[in-house]
Amino acid sequence: MLQEEQQVFSPPEALVDTPTHFCPGCHHGIVHRLVAEVLDRLRVAQDTICVASVGCSVFIYNYLHVDAVEAPHGRAAAVATGVRRARPESIVFTYQGDGDLAAIGLAEILYTANRGENMTVVFVNNTVYGMTGGQLAPTTMVGQKTTTSQQGRRFETDGAPLRMAEIIAGLPGTVYSARVAVDTVQHIKKARKVLLKGFTNQVENRGFSFVEFLSACPTNWRLSPLEANERVGKELIRAFPLGIFKDQESGGPDTESRRSE
User: pTM higher than 0.90, yes or no?
Assistant: First the structure.
């Protein structure tokens, strides 16, 4: 005899119930869900404004029940600064990729963090330009092949990949900087806790918080979804260690950082 089914799980209220347009195996959907869960947990979705910039990251406004502003390429942190100052009662966060934040938007993110703007930055790092065709990005790993580094990134000519969480942690205006991954259930659970802290800091007016997510890009990596997910654990985490690199209750100079794993 069949037993009556019982619902034991519900999606976050802040998450839009719509089919995803992202490539199979892309981790953006997981990050969207975590953001929605945190907004529900803090009960701030109706007061939240998302600022998204150019790239695959821009489509977040199709997946969250929040107000959104689309910024020019790389300018999300600057636009978010204006939004935050014009609407200080709102919760403001940016959602950006590595080609956007760490390249054309590098100056904007550094000065926003250095000023200690009371906002949260969600940075999705898949080590490649996604929307524009898989070119070498500031976070592309040494040896990684892209459409513009056919033989692999060379330190001698291209330098090393930028470790943005560590760079942001070194700025005095930053109160929280961390790097997480979403390739395993264990990592997803840790990522949720870290993201919650990043948004809680803003709710409590502590200052600038930065959360970097290591993410897969199967299409531009030329890998299957499973292979791309495995690569995050085997290669990306080696190049970009997970951890909390700065965590303090208020802004101001800080000389101590800690690693969570």
Answer: yes
